[in-house]
Structures are given as structure tokens and as C-alpha cells.
Specification:
Layout: H1 3-25, H2 28-51, H3 56-68, H4 84-87, H5 92-120, H6 122-128, H7 133-159, H8 172-190, H9 210-214, H10 224-234, H11 236-255, H12 258-276, H13 296-326, H14 329-368
């Protein structure tokens, strides 16, 4: 098999796999929420663009944002699998060509991503930095070149043995490890929504949470509560989702006000519940219903008891920050009431329905086989 054909086959296979998983991630409900979120975010961005003052601090903040975009999507792909160094042992030149083609592919893709991120910031650049289209275009090209250089340097640095420079050897073990890490980071996102075959999420003990786990409420009423809370804290994917969306909500509080802020908070809260909901079935391979009778009602109750304190913290942070920045008690109460009402509907009706359908469908399939 020609190495060019192998490279083409692997990157096409990767994108086919992602497109298959994306159908489950962006289902009907998620797509509707994302459309509302994008529309509201666009409106908020327009309001910010029209009202932001032209000062030294706003210009500095925009420059920092432009520099921060360079840190996004800079990881190169290699498409080198664990068996490749052994398979190509007698023809390392072919494996090098695969790596070089993958590096070129990553440089181009990351450069395009940088272009899109910079174009999104063009309106703010025109307002705060320069009205010149030529200058803005040159800055965009410069940022793309830097991102492409970063990607190439990171790919090159991965191949080196420790800090050895000046030789022509490639550390294929490090290349394979870097590719596995890249794939794990991408598939970890999909694993929040569906069970990705062969995906083993990382588990980290958080010592700061040991005392929290011991004193978590309602553990005696439902033994599954401690199991779910421990998984949420120690299995990084759920914790990362909660932290990420909570921080996005703080950003919304800074750039919006009024009903637009409340609507964005509600949409973000819905997306938060939607992405953490798979937590309830994360231990289905450990808790066997036919050996230890766990009812659907107990699972529904455990999810509420485990996640309600985290959701309450999110609601309070968003509402207090939003109301404080706007200097309005009315907005604070509006956010609290809106999020509490929507949160109650999600936790006491929506999640109960999804959990019941999930386990009823699994049990019916098990007994029909």
C-alpha cells in the first residue's frame, strides 16, 4: 500500500468516525438549544461591538484575546498507530513520509482554524485597533503564520529524544503516545454523550474533595449518590464540562444584561444538564440490575441528589455576578427565578423521562435477546 493512500485512508476514516458521533451529540434538542445560543451570542456580540469604549484597556484586552487564540487547536496529528513502528521497521522512510504528510495536514487545518477565529474578531479589531482593512488582513496573515509555525514546532519537538538536537532519529514511541493523547482528548468529548468503543476515561483522585464526599447529603437514603458524586469529581470529563460551562456563563454575565442574559443562562443550563446526564449510566457495567436490584426511580433520585448542589452553585454564581455587574436587584431575581423554574423542570421531569426511557429500553432489549 502506498503511503499516500494510507495517509488519505486514515484521515478520511477519522472524519467519518467523528461525523458518526456528531449525529448523536447534535441531536434535535441540542441543535435547537445551540441555534438559540448562537443567535443570542451574535446579538450580544453586536451589542458589545456597538457599546465598547475605545480605551487603552479595551485595546489591551483585545490583543490578549488575539494572542489567546494561538493557544487553541495547535496540536498536530500524526496518524501513526502503535503497530506502525514495528510494521515499518524495514522501511522507516515510508513512516517518515506519513508523519510529514500528517504534519503538513495539521499545519493547514490549524491555520484555517486560526483564520476563522481571527475573522470572528474582525469587527472588534476595526473598532478598537484600526479601521484599515489592509492592516487587519496583515495581522490575520501573521497570526495564521504563527499558528502554523507553532503546530510545526510542536510536531518536531514530539519526535526528539528528550532534548537531543542535531540528529536525524525519531522517537516513534513519543509520536504514538502524542497521537493517542490527541485522539483521547477528542473522543473524550464524544464519550460524554455516547459510549465510545475502547474509550477509557481518565480517573484522578481529588484530595480536596475527600471531605466533601464524606459529608455529601442524602447518601444514606440512596447508596448510588456517593457513587455518582465520586464519579463526577474524579472522572475528569464531567467535572470539566461543569467548570467550562460555568465559566462561559460568567462571560455571558459580563457581556449581556436584561432578558438576553437570562435567556442565555437558561440555554447554557440546559446544555449543562444535557452533557452531564450520561453520568447516571456511567456505572451500568459495575451495578448489575439483575444481581443488585436498582430501580429506575432510585437512579432518578440519585442523579438529583448528586447534581443538585452543583447546579445550585452554578445558578447562584451566574445570578449574583449578573445582577451585581448590572447593578440591578430585579435582574438578579429574574435570573434566579428563571433558572430555578427551568432547573426544576429539567431535574424533576426531563431527566426523569430520559433516564426511564434509557433503562427501560436497555432492559427490554436484554430480555428479548
Amino acid at each position: 500500500m502506498a503511503i499516500e493512500h494510507l495517509f488519505k485512508e486514515r484521515w478520511q476514516q477519522e472524519w467519518r468516525q467523528y461525523s458518526k458521533y456528531l449525529r448523536y451529540v447534535f441531536n434535535d434538542h441540542a441543535m435547537l438549544a445551540l441555534l438559540f445560543l448562537l443567535g443570542a451570542a451574535g446579538l450580544a456580540y453586536r451589542q458589545l461591538w456597538e457599546s465598547v469604549p475605545v480605551t487603552f484597556w479595551t485595546r489591551t484586552l483585545l490583543l490578549l484575546v488575539l494572542l489567546l487564540t494561538l493557544a487553541l487547536f495547535k496540536t498536530p496529528a500524526s496518524f501513526v498507530k502503535g503497530a506502525d513502528p514495528v510494521f515499518f521497521m524495514g522501511n522507516e522512510g515510508a513512516l517518515r513520509r506519513l508523519f510529514h504528510q500528517a504534519t503538513l495536514y495539521s499545519v493547514i487545518v490549524n491555520g484555517i482554524v486560526q483564520l476563522l477565529l481571527t475573522v470572528i474578531l474582525w469587527p472588534m479589531m476595526f473598532r478598537l485597533l484600526t479601521p484599515s482593512m489592509i492592516t487587519t488582513f496583515l495581522v490575520t496573515v501573521a497570526l495564521m503564520a504563527v499558528k502554523m509555525l507553532f503546530t510545526f514546532m510542536k510536531a518536531r519537538r514530539t519526535t526528539l529524544f528528550n532534548t537531543t538536537v542535531g540528529n536525524n532519529l525519531i522517537d516513534w514511541r513519543a509520536v504514538v503516545a502524542a497521537e493517542d493523547k490527541r485522539q483521547a482528548a477528542i473522543l473524550g468529548f464524544f464519550n460524554l454523550f455516547i459510549d465510545v468503543p475502547g474509550m477509557k476515561p481518565a480517573v484522578r483522585r481529588q484530595r480536596w474533595a475527600d471531605g466533601l464526599l464524606k459529608h455529601w447529603p442524602n447518601q444514606q437514603r440512596n447508596p448510588l449518590v456517593r457513587l455518582l458524586v465520586t464519579t463526577f469529581i474524579r472522572q475528569g470529563q464531567y467535572w470539566d464540562v461543569w467548570v467550562r460551562l460555568s465559566l462561559i456563563g460568567l462571560l455571558v454575565a459580563f457581556v449581556t444584561t436584561g432578558w438576553l442574559q437570562t435567556i442565555l443562562f437558561v440555554i447554557l443550563f440546559y446544555l449543562l444538564v444535557l452533557q452531564i446526564l450520561p453520568l447516571v449510566s456511567s456505572h451500568r457495567a459495575l451495578v448489575f440490575d439483575h444481581l443488585y436490584p436498582v430501580t429506575v426511580k432510585q437512579r432518578q433520585q440519585a442523579f438529583r441528589y448528586a447534581m443538585m448542589p452543583w447546579f445550585t452553585v452554578t445558578v447562584l454564581i451566574w445570578s449574583v455576578v449578573g445582577g451585581t455587574l448590572a447593578g440591578s436587584i430585579t435582574l438578579l431575581l429574574q435570573n434566579v427565578i428563571g433558572l430555578v423554574v427551568v432547573g426544576g423542570i429539567l431535574l424533576f421531569w426531563y431527566t426523569n423521562r430520559i433516564i426511564a426511557n434509557t433503562f427501560r429500553r436497555r432492559n427490554s432489549r436484554a430480555f428479548t435477546k
